[in-house]
Design goal:
The chain has 227 residues and is an all-alpha fold. It contains 13 helices and no strands.
Length: 227
């Protein structure tokens, strides 16, 4: 039966049934995730001071009251964004299954992953910069932030220890210092790419320059570890 041939009485009942259906309920987790994504973009672009809750609400297709309901305040929302950002990078690292790789391959994989993560997630670096301007006052209050990093250094230490046992790494390398170097050799390059590009007259973001830099990063880290 086509729509044109539908009896008027049935059409009326169908219309009434549709009209009396309760409105679809909002999914709290989806809404919260949408707010976090919108807030990440605003905070990354403008920092904590410059970002406006009204702009975040508009970007998230939410309202200010909903944001305050889920997060309490702009400061708490910023803290949640930082927690979410660090959770993402730590989660991505776990998926590398580094304990199943040889020590040298594990270091290459982690160095490469860190570099590629920065390239694909530039907001992460700007959020970290912003929190350091605030002297880490938000993450200091975060239990989740501390929990996210409990196993990371021990994972890196296991790789170092396996390398020492296999005779490919020297003993005495501090896993914390190694991680700082692994992050720094990529982080500095990307956060200073504009000024450094002028100084050295190089397009820091060309494919060739990025490949050369990754190769240099890997070689630098491995030289720190080799006997």
């Amino acid at each position: 039966m086509t729509l044109a041939s539908t009896p008027p009485g049935r059409a009326l009942k169908t219309a009434k049934a549709g009209a009396t259906q309760p409105p679809r309920q909002r999914d709290p987790e989806v809404t919260r995730a949408r707010i976090l994504e919108a807030a990440k973009k605003e905070f990354a672009k403008l920092g904590l001071a410059g970002a406006r809750v009204e702009a975040i609400a508009t970007r998230a297709k939410a309202n200010k009251r909903m944001i305050y309901h889920y997060f309490g305040s702009k400061e708490e929302l910023f803290q949640a964004v930082l927690e979410d950002a660090y959770a993402d990078i730590r989660s991505a690292e776990l998926k590398l299954n580094l304990d199943h790789l040889s020590p040298e391959d594990a270091i290459v994989a982690l160095t490469t992953h860190t570099w590629n993560y920065y390239l694909k997630n530039p907001e992460f670096m700007t959020l970290v910069n912003s929190e350091n301007l605030h002297k880490a006052r938000h993450v200091k209050k975060s239990e989740r932030f501390k929990e996210l990093h409990h196993g990371f250094i021990s994972m890196l230490q296991r790789i170092i220890d396996r390398g020492v046992e296999a005779g490919v790494f020297r003993a005495g390398v501090d896993a914390r210092q190694l991680h700082i170097t692994m992050a720094a050799v990529g982080y500095y390059y990307l956060t200073n790419r504009f000024t450094s590009g002028v100084i050295f007259d190089i397009d820091f973001m060309s494919k060739e320059a990025l490949k050369n830099r990754l190769d240099f990063n890997i070689e630098t880290v491995l030289r720190l570890l080799r006997p």
